[in-house]
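Researcher: Here's a chain I'd like modeled. Treat it as a single chain, no partners, no ligands.
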Amino acid sequence: MISATHIHAMIIHFPIALLMVGFIFELITFRYRKLFFTQAAFCFLVLGTLGTIASYIAGKAAGDGIEEGALGKAIELHQRAGTITLWLSIATTFFYSVLFIRKINNTKIRMVGLILFAVVLGFISKTGYLGGQLVFKHGAGVELALPDFSNPDDN
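Model: Modeled as a single isolated chain. Structure tokens:
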């Protein structure tokens, strides 16, 4: 049966990849000044932020009810980092939306956006690291399935 934990694990990698590629395209924009790269970076940012929202919602549902012990503390740290990442990506998307709609191409203002984008990637890295710790250190979402040794024909 698919749970919120499965959904979170299935979709979380998309916003990570989309935002990383968007950041790379934004860096390319500074070098080549092509409209294509600016538009692509903006599209990747918007799609990545939408994915971040979906991942946050699924992750919040996956972690509900686990509040005690080492796993509860690890989930709380991951959720805090995820919340900061969510709001930073929304704020960065809003900032770039203003630049895109108003066709602002001032290098200093775009540099502020690039720094915001870099901060988003930093928090995505931290959130991902903490999520990895949940799975690989604490076994969150891992279901142990041992073979049924009672029936020798199945082995």
